[in-house]
Protein backbone atom coordinates (compact mmCIF):
# COMPACT_ATOMS: atom_id res chain seq x y z
CA UNK A 1 0.00 0.00 0.00
CA UNK A 2 1.51 3.34 -1.05
CA UNK A 3 1.18 6.60 0.84
CA UNK A 4 -1.79 7.83 -1.18
CA UNK A 5 -3.69 4.58 -0.64
CA UNK A 6 -2.86 4.63 3.06
CA UNK A 7 -4.06 8.22 3.38
CA UNK A 8 -7.30 7.48 1.53
CA UNK A 9 -7.91 4.38 3.65
CA UNK A 10 -7.37 6.47 6.78
CA UNK A 11 -9.78 9.14 5.53
CA UNK A 12 -12.51 6.58 4.82
CA UNK A 13 -11.92 4.65 8.04
CA UNK A 14 -12.19 7.65 10.36
CA UNK A 15 -15.36 8.87 8.65
CA UNK A 16 -16.80 5.35 8.98
CA UNK A 17 -15.75 5.25 12.64
CA UNK A 18 -17.43 8.61 13.23
CA UNK A 19 -20.67 7.70 11.46
CA UNK A 20 -21.09 4.04 12.46
CA UNK A 21 -18.63 2.57 14.95
CA UNK A 22 -18.67 5.31 17.57
CA UNK A 23 -22.50 5.54 17.64
CA UNK A 24 -22.76 1.76 18.02
CA UNK A 25 -20.30 1.70 20.93
CA UNK A 26 -21.47 4.90 22.61
CA UNK A 27 -25.10 3.81 22.70
CA UNK A 28 -24.18 1.45 25.53
CA UNK A 29 -23.27 4.41 27.77
CA UNK A 30 -26.37 5.66 29.68
CA UNK A 31 -25.24 9.29 29.97
CA UNK A 32 -24.49 9.45 26.25
CA UNK A 33 -28.15 8.91 25.43
CA UNK A 34 -29.08 12.06 27.38
CA UNK A 35 -26.83 14.31 25.30
CA UNK A 36 -28.20 16.73 22.71
CA UNK A 37 -27.84 16.01 19.01
CA UNK A 38 -24.94 18.45 18.65
CA UNK A 39 -23.21 17.04 21.73
CA UNK A 40 -23.49 13.53 20.30
CA UNK A 41 -22.01 14.74 17.02
CA UNK A 42 -19.02 16.26 18.81
CA UNK A 43 -18.74 13.15 21.00
CA UNK A 44 -18.27 10.95 17.93
CA UNK A 45 -15.79 13.39 16.37
CA UNK A 46 -13.75 13.39 19.58
CA UNK A 47 -13.82 9.59 19.76
CA UNK A 48 -12.29 9.49 16.28
CA UNK A 49 -9.75 12.09 17.42
CA UNK A 50 -8.78 9.96 20.42
CA UNK A 51 -8.38 6.81 18.34
CA UNK A 52 -6.22 8.65 15.82
CA UNK A 53 -4.07 10.15 18.58
CA UNK A 54 -3.41 6.77 20.20
CA UNK A 55 -2.52 5.11 16.88
CA UNK A 56 -0.15 7.77 15.55
CA UNK A 57 1.51 8.33 18.93
CA UNK A 58 2.33 4.64 19.24
CA UNK A 59 3.56 4.46 15.64
CA UNK A 60 5.72 7.57 16.06
CA UNK A 61 7.20 6.21 19.29
CA UNK A 62 8.11 2.96 17.57
CA UNK A 63 9.68 4.79 14.62
CA UNK A 64 11.78 7.04 16.84
CA UNK A 65 12.85 4.33 19.30
CA UNK A 66 13.49 1.33 17.08
CA UNK A 67 14.27 2.51 13.55
CA UNK A 68 17.91 3.46 14.12
CA UNK A 69 18.68 4.36 10.52
CA UNK A 70 16.22 7.25 10.80
CA UNK A 71 18.10 8.65 13.78
CA UNK A 72 21.33 8.47 11.78
CA UNK A 73 19.80 10.46 8.92
CA UNK A 74 17.03 12.72 10.18
CA UNK A 75 16.83 14.59 6.88
CA UNK A 76 16.58 11.91 4.23
CA UNK A 77 15.96 8.80 6.32
CA UNK A 78 12.75 6.98 5.46
CA UNK A 79 10.90 3.78 6.25
CA UNK A 80 7.53 2.26 5.47
CA UNK A 81 6.30 2.81 9.02
CA UNK A 82 7.47 6.43 9.19
CA UNK A 83 5.53 7.16 6.01
CA UNK A 84 2.52 5.14 7.15
CA UNK A 85 2.15 7.12 10.39
CA UNK A 86 2.14 10.41 8.49
CA UNK A 87 -0.27 9.11 5.85
CA UNK A 88 -2.69 7.97 8.54
CA UNK A 89 -2.45 11.40 10.15
CA UNK A 90 -3.12 13.21 6.87
CA UNK A 91 -6.16 11.02 6.21
CA UNK A 92 -7.53 11.74 9.67
CA UNK A 93 -6.90 15.50 9.41
CA UNK A 94 -8.76 15.65 6.10
CA UNK A 95 -11.66 13.63 7.51
CA UNK A 96 -11.87 15.95 10.52
CA UNK A 97 -11.75 19.00 8.25
CA UNK A 98 -14.65 17.49 6.31
CA UNK A 99 -16.63 17.14 9.55
CA UNK A 100 -15.77 20.69 10.59
CA UNK A 101 -16.88 22.18 7.28
CA UNK A 102 -20.10 20.14 7.18
CA UNK A 103 -20.96 20.35 10.91
CA UNK A 104 -19.03 23.42 12.05
CA UNK A 105 -20.93 24.25 15.24
CA UNK A 106 -21.92 20.69 16.09
CA UNK A 107 -18.34 19.37 16.20
CA UNK A 108 -17.01 22.42 18.05
CA UNK A 109 -15.17 23.75 15.03
CA UNK A 110 -12.96 26.82 15.45
CA UNK A 111 -10.70 28.83 13.19
CA UNK A 112 -7.79 27.63 15.31
CA UNK A 113 -8.55 23.99 14.57
CA UNK A 114 -8.89 24.69 10.85
CA UNK A 115 -5.52 26.45 10.78
CA UNK A 116 -3.92 23.66 12.81
CA UNK A 117 -5.28 20.92 10.54
CA UNK A 118 -4.44 22.73 7.30
CA UNK A 119 -0.84 23.60 8.15
CA UNK A 120 -0.22 20.15 9.66
CA UNK A 121 -1.63 18.33 6.64
CA UNK A 122 0.37 20.58 4.30
CA UNK A 123 3.61 19.88 6.15
CA UNK A 124 3.10 16.11 6.27
CA UNK A 125 2.11 15.90 2.59
CA UNK A 126 5.16 17.99 1.68
CA UNK A 127 7.41 15.68 3.67
CA UNK A 128 5.87 12.55 2.18
CA UNK A 129 6.03 13.82 -1.40
CA UNK A 130 9.75 14.57 -1.11
CA UNK A 131 10.66 11.89 1.45
CA UNK A 132 12.32 14.63 3.46
CA UNK A 133 12.49 15.17 7.25
CA UNK A 134 10.27 12.16 7.97
CA UNK A 135 11.93 11.50 11.36
CA UNK A 136 11.30 15.12 12.32
CA UNK A 137 7.66 14.85 11.24
CA UNK A 138 7.22 11.72 13.34
CA UNK A 139 8.74 13.53 16.31
CA UNK A 140 6.13 16.25 15.87
CA UNK A 141 3.42 13.57 15.90
CA UNK A 142 4.25 12.89 19.55
CA UNK A 143 2.28 16.06 20.33
CA UNK A 144 -0.85 13.93 19.89
CA UNK A 145 0.00 12.27 23.21
CA UNK A 146 -2.12 14.83 25.06
CA UNK A 147 -5.19 14.62 22.81
CA UNK A 148 -6.97 11.71 24.57
CA UNK A 149 -6.88 13.64 27.85
CA UNK A 150 -8.30 16.74 26.14
CA UNK A 151 -11.19 14.70 24.75
CA UNK A 152 -11.84 12.88 28.03
CA UNK A 153 -11.96 16.23 29.82
CA UNK A 154 -14.63 17.42 27.40
CA UNK A 155 -16.62 14.18 27.75
CA UNK A 156 -16.57 14.33 31.56
CA UNK A 157 -17.63 17.96 31.53
CA UNK A 158 -20.43 17.36 29.03
CA UNK A 159 -21.84 14.39 30.97
CA UNK A 160 -21.96 16.33 34.24
CA UNK A 161 -18.84 14.93 35.88
CA UNK A 162 -16.92 18.17 36.18
CA UNK A 163 -16.67 17.86 39.97
CA UNK A 164 -15.51 14.25 39.95
CA UNK A 165 -12.11 12.98 41.03
CA UNK A 166 -11.57 11.56 37.54
CA UNK A 167 -12.07 15.00 36.01
CA UNK A 168 -9.52 16.53 38.37
CA UNK A 169 -6.82 13.90 37.88
CA UNK A 170 -7.42 13.77 34.14
CA UNK A 171 -6.82 17.52 34.14
CA UNK A 172 -3.47 16.97 35.83
CA UNK A 173 -2.54 14.29 33.29
CA UNK A 174 -3.65 16.58 30.47
CA UNK A 175 -1.44 19.38 31.75
CA UNK A 176 1.53 17.05 32.24
CA UNK A 177 1.21 15.30 28.87
CA UNK A 178 0.69 18.57 27.02
CA UNK A 179 3.75 20.06 28.68
CA UNK A 180 6.12 17.14 28.05
CA UNK A 181 4.96 16.53 24.47
CA UNK A 182 4.48 20.09 23.18
CA UNK A 183 6.10 22.68 25.45
CA UNK A 184 9.18 21.07 27.02
CA UNK A 185 10.66 19.89 23.66
CA UNK A 186 10.57 23.37 22.11
CA UNK A 187 14.05 24.63 23.05
CA UNK A 188 15.64 21.28 22.16
CA UNK A 189 13.70 21.11 18.89
CA UNK A 190 14.75 24.57 17.73
CA UNK A 191 18.33 23.88 18.73
CA UNK A 192 18.11 20.86 16.41
CA UNK A 193 16.56 23.06 13.71
CA UNK A 194 19.62 25.31 13.83
CA UNK A 195 22.14 22.46 14.12
CA UNK A 196 20.77 20.37 11.27
CA UNK A 197 21.28 23.18 8.77
CA UNK A 198 25.05 22.78 9.08
CA UNK A 199 24.92 19.18 7.84
CA UNK A 200 26.15 18.50 4.31
CA UNK A 201 22.99 16.54 3.52
CA UNK A 202 20.86 19.60 4.29
CA UNK A 203 22.25 21.38 1.23
CA UNK A 204 19.85 19.27 -0.88
CA UNK A 205 16.84 20.69 0.96
CA UNK A 206 15.11 23.25 -1.27
CA UNK A 207 14.35 26.78 -0.11
CA UNK A 208 10.54 26.21 -0.24
CA UNK A 209 10.99 23.09 1.90
CA UNK A 210 13.26 24.96 4.31
CA UNK A 211 10.73 27.76 4.73
CA UNK A 212 7.78 25.36 4.93
CA UNK A 213 8.94 23.02 7.66
CA UNK A 214 10.34 25.72 9.92
CA UNK A 215 7.39 28.04 9.31
CA UNK A 216 4.81 25.34 10.01
CA UNK A 217 6.56 24.30 13.22
CA UNK A 218 6.63 27.89 14.44
CA UNK A 219 2.93 28.39 13.70
CA UNK A 220 2.00 25.18 15.50
CA UNK A 221 4.16 26.01 18.50
CA UNK A 222 2.64 29.47 18.86
CA UNK A 223 -0.75 27.74 18.94
CA UNK A 224 0.56 25.21 21.47
CA UNK A 225 1.69 28.02 23.76
CA UNK A 226 -1.71 29.68 23.50
CA UNK A 227 -3.51 26.41 24.25
CA UNK A 228 -1.19 25.65 27.16
CA UNK A 229 -2.00 29.03 28.67
CA UNK A 230 -5.71 28.14 28.55
CA UNK A 231 -5.04 24.70 30.05
CA UNK A 232 -3.04 26.19 32.91
CA UNK A 233 -5.74 28.77 33.54
CA UNK A 234 -8.39 26.04 33.65
CA UNK A 235 -6.48 23.70 35.93
CA UNK A 236 -5.55 26.52 38.34
CA UNK A 237 -9.18 27.62 38.52
CA UNK A 238 -10.23 24.05 39.29
CA UNK A 239 -7.52 23.61 41.94
CA UNK A 240 -8.55 26.85 43.66
CA UNK A 241 -12.19 25.77 43.56
CA UNK A 242 -11.37 22.39 45.12
CA UNK A 243 -9.20 24.06 47.74
CA UNK A 244 -11.98 26.43 48.78
CA UNK A 245 -14.49 23.57 48.86
CA UNK A 246 -12.24 21.50 51.13
CA UNK A 247 -11.85 24.44 53.52
CA UNK A 248 -15.61 24.92 53.87
CA UNK A 249 -16.79 23.04 57.00
CA UNK A 250 -19.86 20.83 56.66
CA UNK A 251 -23.00 22.37 58.14
CA UNK A 252 -25.08 20.75 60.90
CA UNK A 253 -28.80 21.04 61.38
CA UNK A 254 -28.36 23.89 63.88
CA UNK A 255 -26.13 25.84 61.51
CA UNK A 256 -22.79 25.03 63.19
CA UNK A 257 -19.98 22.89 61.89
CA UNK A 258 -19.29 19.41 63.19
CA UNK A 259 -16.12 19.25 65.18
CA UNK A 260 -13.67 16.77 63.71
CA UNK A 261 -12.14 14.70 66.49
From TrEMBL:
Q: Where is the TLC domain?
A: 38-240
- Any one GO BP annotation for this protein: lipid homeostasis
Tell me which stretches of the chain form a coiled coil. none
* Protein's membrane topology: Multi-pass membrane protein
Cross-referenced InterPro entries, in alphabetical order? Answer: TLC-dom, TLCD
Note whether Secreted occurs among the keywords.
no
Q: Note whether Cell division occurs among the keywords.
A: no
- Any single GO CC term annotated in Swiss-Prot or TrEMBL for this entry: endoplasmic reticulum
Q: Please name the PROSITE patterns in this protein's record.
A: TLC
Keyword annotations for this protein? Membrane, Transmembrane, Transmembrane helix
Positions of transmembrane segments:
50-68, 80-101, 121-143, 166-190, 210-228
The places in or outside the cell where this protein is found are: Membrane
By what name is this protein known? Transmembrane protein 56-B
Amino acid sequence: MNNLQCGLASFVFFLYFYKHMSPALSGRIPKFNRLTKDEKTEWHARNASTLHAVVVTLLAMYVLLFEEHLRRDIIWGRSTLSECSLSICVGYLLSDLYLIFTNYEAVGGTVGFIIHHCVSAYAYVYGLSGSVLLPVANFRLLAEMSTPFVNLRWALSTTGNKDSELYFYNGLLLTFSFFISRILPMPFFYYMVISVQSLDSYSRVSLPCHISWIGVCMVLDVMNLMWFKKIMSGILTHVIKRSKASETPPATHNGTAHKIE
